[in-house]
Amino acid sequence: MAEKFVKGKMVPLPTSAIIPERDLDKAPILECRHLGIDFGGLKAVDDFNLIIGRTEIAGLIGPNGAGKTTVFNLLTKVYQPTRGIIMLDGYDTAGKTTEQINRMGIARTFQNIRLFDNLSVEDNVKIGLHNQEPYSVATGILRLPKYWRQEKAAHERALELLSIFDMQDLADSRAGSLPYGAQRRLEIVRALATNPSLLLLDEPAAGMNPSETEELMEHIVRIRDTFQIAVLLIEHDMRLVMGICEGICVLNFGRIIAKGTSEEIQANPVVIEAYLGRKKEG
After folding, report:
1. Is the pTM of this model over 0.85?
2. Residue 72 has pLDDT above 70, yes or no
3. What is the domain range of residue 133?
């Protein structure tokens, strides 16, 4: 049950943001200040402010079309913001490309799974290991010692990461042949292969049954604890969100309408009306 997950006590910062108490002695991994983007005359995201602690599991929720995936696209520079600042590990990300952002420490998964279906499970993970020290074309063609050393290291690392989800025995399977839930897990493993400090999960439980979702919750907590990274997830499964997210941000029409702990969000009348449904009169 979700109750077994122990969440950190959230404490306020001078900025009125909250982060886990265990992260108080560390700089936040992410800080968004007055972030926004316009598409024509539409303010898709406006005045978005968020701070995430270095080992926090945070949730970004809201109705369909609220702007959640747009926020992810801004954080990963799929879109360049119209206004505002994104600080990652203390560095301004202005002008960075998607690849540069990944190298700086943000990795993500997508609503629609994006695997290389015809490649093996292991090769999909190895693609995420692109941040490792490269070897030259000549080294690869001639199969010099450095090539074999790095191939061996990549193979071992891929199997190590796959073992997080007990998928190491599927390393030689074709990615496209995996069941839906396993493909979801593989996408997370590939993101972890880039060695992120902030992992963005876009609806990771989509299409999963309750048992798979429960297992996913355990894995997300274990990933945070094992790698000592932060996780920001978009999810419509409120049992998952309320079960493991320590700080939750609620969007509606591109603007934040509430921030707080799971208990505060569940009791917030604005959230209940806008997202969880209006309380019935009694």
Report:
1. yes
2. yes
3. 114-193
